[in-house]
Structures are given as structure tokens and as C-alpha cells.
Predict the 3D structure of the following.
Amino acid sequence: MSTTTSAQPEDATPGPATPGASGPGSGGPGSGGPGAAGVRDATARTGRRNASGNGVPFRKGPARGAGRQLHGGRFTYAVLTVFTVGSLFPLVWTAIAASRNNTRLAQTPPPFWFGGNLFKNLQIAWTDANMGTALLNTAIVAGSIAAGTVLFSTLAGFAFAKLRFRFKNLLLLLVIGTMMVPPQLSVVPLYMLIAELSWTDRLQSVILPTLVSAFGVFFMRQYLVGALPTELIEAARVDGAASWRVVWHVVFPAARPAMAVLGMLTFVMAWNDFFWPIIALTQNGSPTVQVALTGLGRGYIPDQSVIMAGALLGTLPLLIAFVLFGKHIVGGIMQGAVKG
């Protein structure tokens, strides 16, 4: 009859007994006795070691400085002040020049404070340039172009981002390639087309050629690639949603921040557009603001103060729109920038 003994490492040597580690009444490891409790207390006091084994305790909780509000230094405020003053100076100078007369503006040094002719010059510019009609026409043109660009660019961007069809990449390259063509090359054939359609000096001659932009399509495509999960579209398809319902209930809500940014940029560009409206429209017909302002510069000696007053009238609607909707626009930008 043989006796079986357990194998031990060759270098194992019996050591002194550790109090509380074994023995009667102390409990072995995992026994839940006083020895195990002592080990657990020691571990809790020491803390966990990090993965690299350098002896630094591992601490749970937020990172150091998380949730703390950051404060800029003096240099940061100085740079922001310089940029703010530089951005506001053209607008302030326009208002100062509009409140002076032509003689004072021709003197050296020029005035750097407001005069008393602001409302008089504004009234002259409003009457001579027919600014009421021009502002209304510009609002119609800019609003229609912005709405059409946002709508069609979102649909096209969704198609290029999430739908599968032949020659998708080739068509996208063609759309991007149109951005490299100078717009001056299309002026003559475009004017011939609107003359053939009898659209000269009508607002549709300015609206329809710019309802879709290659930049808008590319911008929306790039946004929807990352912001719109494919699984969300597939889930809507499984629920029986048609294509237009998927676009209305899934694509548009996901693309809302980018649509707000694209609409703002397009509206400002359409409002300030001068090259094509001055060709397609006339001052006596259906002028936009930029076309109407050209009438103020005519004459042997143009009145610069009246021209500045007209420019101030053409800028005020954009400032009012930004004051009213600026918070929503910035909120849309931040909503699209913050993930999670």
C-alpha cells in the first residue's frame, strides 16, 4: 500500500507562520475568517495597483480637473478684444460715414465719431434707391435660394451617403468637379437661356439657377455619412416606412444641425450676391439690394455718405436676423459638433 504525497516546487521552503493567515480559528484564504478580513482591510487601505505595476494606487472617479470651468488669461482676452474690434470696425465706420456729409468725409483726417445727418441720409437712400422694394425682392430671392439649396442638397447628400446605386462615386466626383469651374464661364449661355424664356428682369432668373449648389451637396453628404447610422434607416425600413417617410422622420431630424448651418451660409451669400443679379436684373424693374445700391453711386460727384447709408440699410436685416436666430444657429452647430 503506497502513500501519495503532493508535489511542491523545489525552491519552496517552509517559512514562519503568519498570524491570522492559517491555523485554528484564523481561517484560510477564502474561508471568511478573521485572517481573510484582515487581508481585505489591508488591501482596501493600500488601494489597487495600476496595470504597469509601478506601485501607484488606482483611483476611481472623474479625471483630475474634470468639470472645472476653464478661464482664459490676459493674452486670450487681448486677442479676443483685437479680433472683436477688427470685426466691428467696418460696420461702425459705415454708420459713422452715413451720419456725415460728403464734404466732411473728404477731409483728412476722416471723422471717427457720429454726426447729425444719419436719419437724413437714410431717408435719401431709401427714396432714391427704392430700398423698400429692393429689400423685399432680396428677402424673396435669398429665402427661396436658401430653402431650395437646403432641401435639394439634403436629399442629394443622403443619396450619396447612404443609398446604393450604379456610378455613385463617379457622379459624386462630377458634382465636386463643378465647383472648380469658374462661374463667369456660364454667364453667356445662362443669359441666353433666360432671354429665350423671357425671364429677363424677373426674380426667377436669379432664383432658379442657384437652387442647388455643389458645395451644399458635398457638405450634407459628408455630414450624413457620420451622423446618420445605417441601422436607423434599416430599422425604419423594417417597420414598413416608405422612402419619403424615412427622409422626413429619420434623415431630416438627423441632418437638422447641418441644414441650419447650410441655410445660414446660403442665405447670406444670396443676400450679398452682386455679379449675376446685376446682369439679370435692372434698377427700374425688380432690383435686389445690391443692384439698387448701384444707383446711388451715379452722378458727377457721388455722395459717399448716402451710399454708406444705403449700405447700412442693406446690412441691417442680416444683423436683425442673426440677433433673433443666432442662438438657434449656434445651438444647431454645437449639436452637430458634440457626439454622444
